[in-house]
Amino acid sequence: MEKITVKIYEDSKQASVAVAKRIADMITHRAKEGKKAVLGLATGHTPVGVYRELIRMHEEDGLDLSNVVTFNLDEYWPMKPGLLQSYHRWMNENLFDHVNIPRANIHIPSGTIDEKDIEQHCQEYEERVREAGGIDIQILGIGRTGHIGFNEPGSSRNSRTRRISLDKVTRMDAASDFFGEENVPKMAITMGVGTVMEAKEIALLSFGEHKAHVIRAAVEGDISTKVAASFLQEHPKCTFYIDLASADKLIRISTPWQIGLCDWDDPLERQAVLWLARVVKKPILKLTNEDYAENGLAQLLHSRANAYDINLRVFRRMMSTITGWPGGKAEAKKVLVLSPHPDDDVICMAGTIMRLVEQGHDVHTAYMVSGALSVFDHDVRWHGEFVREFNKIFGLIPEQTISINKQLEKYLENKRPGDLDKPEVQRIKALIRRTEALAAAQYCGLDEKQTHFLDMPFYNTGRVQKILIGAEDISRVYELLMEIEPDMIFAAGDMSDPHGTHKLCLEAFLKAFEGYSKTSKKQTRVLLYRGAWEEWKPEQVDMVVPLSPDELKKKRLAIFRHQSQKDRAMFPGPYDSREFWQRAEERNRATADTFDDLGLPEYEALEAFVQLPINIPISVRSQLNSG
Ligand code: F6R
């Protein structure tokens, strides 16, 4: 079914290390022959891990890159090289400044070239690639439109380096880097599909569940100009290095029974039965032997007694996930909810938090990053005015407030889109989010002592895209774990949030938890919720908490406490104009509807959780490559 070689790794780090190793081997091999190694490079979230590993190899293992020549895929046009969003600057910061590639060997399409000279510039770029002897290894990411480089849908197999108009989806995906879609350039200069296809070897990387659709289209679909990456099917030496989340829609992962014999363990049985129920549109307990046989699940049927037994086992397993007592009924527990941004806790699990509080558990919420980046400037003005008037009421030095407000006003007026806020403004924005989080937590029944603000430093670069966590980030989570010693922890289990913040928060938590588990004698249950972008699949969930219609309304009001994110959020995430409360409700209702369709009890809404370690079917594990 797969028309391209695909290597699947458990996580993005393993995949990145594998690609970096491949590149390093090629560089060393070329050096031994006294030749140059020519690399085609990509930017974006995806290749960061590869560059990080190359830098590590250079610093720790002595990897010499002095024989390397590079050609980047693309650059926005127009774009000044020093600007925050420029791929020139990005490459310097993420690779070139840290390794010994001679500056003269580096090539990136120009974002400042005059319009009239673009065509010639593009031809010269192609010429330089040829002069260098062609690209030895081309690194690619993939856009949600299926683009490689900036070859948007419609790009032909033979397209060459040229100026291109960016697709609406691509511009929306880039909106947050530019502090608003209106600031994203409408054009870019990119190598063509034809240019990329001439590389001797191609390594495409893809991470996160938001790319799963397009990976399936590129790998299993027909070759089409609608998905530029599908042309890679014709390349003699192209490999996709992807994580499990991006592989989720490939047949060998989503419905492996369609391509061969499987090891039938409980997680795979559940996956197959819920799939079958969806296909034949029947509740679990009504599935018949014929349904199994006629839909390619005869092998499951044969490995068990009959449909009735299978149905019952999966039905019971699904029933066991439903609980109105998320903390259990025995004794009061200490519960810690880790919320990456200040509103994730209520968006994703306000109903569960309120239940836990009502049922007498000691619930703490910890806000991992300040969230300052997503506060609009007008909210800073508004709060400034509030403080001025508040001070007037109590006769507190109004002059000082007035003068500070004037300075702020002047500063905000002169700010250009994408400029980093000065530290005081960042602090005001963080304060706005902090007071909102406190208000929402109080609404859920917590007091101030039960709320913790970690203000993790990795977030405070003022930049939208987040790349690395440090020791201090981990240590803040670790200290909190030591202080609270929770029986239960809820954390956000996201891999595909637009800016990487959730992923890094999860990484920091897992590292801190590893250290904590070594010292603590407590048995801690860890449950993962999903952020505002994706939801767990029903076959994955270990616990769902029902919400009554009234509880769902209360959840909405808790989310409303985050006023700065109401009506229009600064970073809604790509391609979704719904407000966060709408997404939360629709998602929780959709989970309830799915349970209903499966013949399980009918609820208004369900909040879903997956327990760590995540149960992965043996058949899926067996598909994994090692780093
Ligand atoms: C970047 C590039 C693009 C990206 C793609 C994925 O040089 O050419 O094709 O690889 O848009 O971007 P990320 O990795 O940010 O998801």
- Determine the number of helices (DSSP H or I, runs of at least 4 residues): 21
Write down the overall mean pLDDT: 94
Topology-level CATH name of the largest domain:
Rossmann fold
Top CATH class of the largest domain: Alpha Beta
* Ligands, deduplicated: fructose -6-phosphate
What is shown here, in short?
This protein is 41% helix and 13% strand.
Tell me what you see in this structure.
The chain is of the alpha/beta class and 627 residues long. The protein has three domains: 5-251, Rossmann fold (3-Layer(aba) Sandwich), CATH 3.40.50.1360; 262-319, no CATH class; 334-375 and 425-621, Rossmann fold (3-Layer(aba) Sandwich), CATH 3.40.50. Helices cover 41% and strands 13% of the residues. α1 (12-32) packs across α2 and α14 runs antiparallel to α15 (398-414). It is globular and about 70 Å long. The mean pLDDT is 94. The structure holds fructose -6-phosphate. Fructose -6-phosphate (F6R) binds at residues 42-46, 73-74, 141-143, 147-150.
Q: Any key phrases for this structure?
A:
627 residues; single chain; Rossmann fold; 41% helix; 3 domains; alpha/beta; binds fructose -6-phosphate
Write the layout of secondary structure elements.
Elements: E1 5-9, H1 12-32, E2 37-41, H2 48-60, E3 68-72, E4 74-77, H3 87-94, E5 106-107, H4 118-131, E6 137-140, E7 162-165, H5 168-174, E8 187-190, H6 193-197, E9 201-206, H7 212-220, E10 238-243, H8 251-254, H9 266-280, H10 289-294, H11 298-303, H12 307-319, E11 334-339, H13 344-358, E12 362-367, H14 377-393, H15 398-414, H16 423-443, E13 451-453, H17 471-484, E14 488-492, H18 501-519, E15 525-529, E16 543-547, H19 549-560, H20 580-597, E17 605-611, H21 618-621, E18 624-625
Parallel strand pairs: 1-10, 1-18, 2-3, 2-6, 3-5, 6-9, 9-10, 11-12, 11-14, 12-13, 14-15
Antiparallel strand pairs: 4-8, 7-8, 15-17, 16-17
Helix pairs in contact: 1-2, 9-12, 13-19, 14-15, 14-16, 16-19, 17-18, 19-20
Bound molecules: fructose -6-phosphate.
Fructose -6-phosphate (F6R) is lined by residues 42-46, 73-74, 141-143, 147-150.
